[in-house]
């Protein structure tokens, strides 16, 4: 059974705070992704990583950065949180050479 | 880049009826098309996928069809049940990218008992 966990289910932060969202997998999958899910907008890719210390921008990277120091852990960082970053954040993993992406349970972030 | 349009945004059917959700994509080089189901409060889960060298794929009550010429693909659910109620997302992956999926905006399917 694929296991992807995210550090928090719900998070409330203030505008301007630095926010860390963490995704951890125990499947030894190479590829990891951060998506943002908003009603009526679907899932939009923020960043992805295909190896330790490797990252690529997705469709909406502005205002975010990422870190992957270990294979099993992929962090999404909001350098200075803003109210328009209030959203559901979903992490996903994928084995290299395979097609299926497996999602984590999501973190619902509220920025006040 | 790839653009995926999904219709309808909401769909309400009676239990036992069929439901069809359609997606169109813009990049003719896209070669992989998954469908994800997201129940309320849960994570998206893959329910079926199709590759560009196949026209149709079935798995029990669900099927996906692909028309490469028209650049559209559809999810078909037959004999719908209340537990089919969820948000469904289509996605497309461009050839040459092993990673990047572009998702549609989702369809909220409600199956009324």
Keywords:
heterodimer; A: 112 residues; mainly beta; 7-stranded mixed beta sheet; B: 113 residues; 6-stranded mixed beta sheet
Helical content of chain A (DSSP H or I, runs of 4+) = under 10%
Strand content of chain A: over 45%
Number of strands of chain B: 11
For the largest interface, the chains and their residue counts are:
A-B, 25 and 24 residues
Radius of gyration of chain A, CA atoms, in whole angstroms? 13 Å
Compressed to H and E, one letter per element, the order of chain A equals EEEEEEEEEEE
Q: Would you summarize the structure shown here?
A:
With 112 residues, chain A is an all-beta fold. Chain A has strands spanning 4-6, 10-13, 19-25, 31-38, 42-51, 54-57, 64-70, 73-78, 87-94, 102-103, 107-111.
Describe the secondary-structure layout.
The complex is a heterodimer of chains A (112) and B (113).
Chain A: E1 4-6, E2 10-13, E3 19-25, E4 31-38, E5 42-51, E6 54-57, E7 64-70, E8 73-78, E9 87-94, E10 102-103, E11 107-111
Chain B: E1 4-7, E2 10-14, E3 19-25, E4 30-38, E5 45-51, E6 56-59, E7 62-67, E8 72-77, E9 86-94, E10 101-103, E11 107-112
Question: What would you say this structure looks like, in words?
Answer:
The complex is a heterodimer of chains A (112) and B (113). With 112 residues, chain A is an all-beta fold. Helices cover 0% and strands 57% of the residues of chain A. Chain A is built from no helices and 11 strands. Chain A has strands at 4-6, 10-13, 19-25, 31-38, 42-51, 54-57, 64-70, 73-78, 87-94, 102-103, 107-111. In chain A, the strands form 2 sheets. In chain A, strands 2, 4, 5, 6, 9, 10 and 11 form a 7-stranded mixed sheet that branches. In chain A, a hairpin with a 2-residue loop joins strand 7 (64-70) and strand 8 (73-78). Chain A is globular. With 113 residues, chain B is mainly beta. Chain B is 0% helix and 58% strand. Chain B has no helices and 11 strands. In chain B, the strands form 2 sheets. In chain B, strands 2, 4, 5, 9, 10 and 11 form a 6-stranded mixed sheet that branches. In chain B, a hairpin with a 4-residue loop joins strand 7 (62-67) and strand 8 (72-77). The termini of chain B are far apart. In chain B, 34% of the residues are buried. Classes of the chains: A mainly beta (112), B mainly beta (113). Chains A and B meet through strand 5 and strand 10 of A and strand 4, strand 5, strand 9 and strand 10 of B.
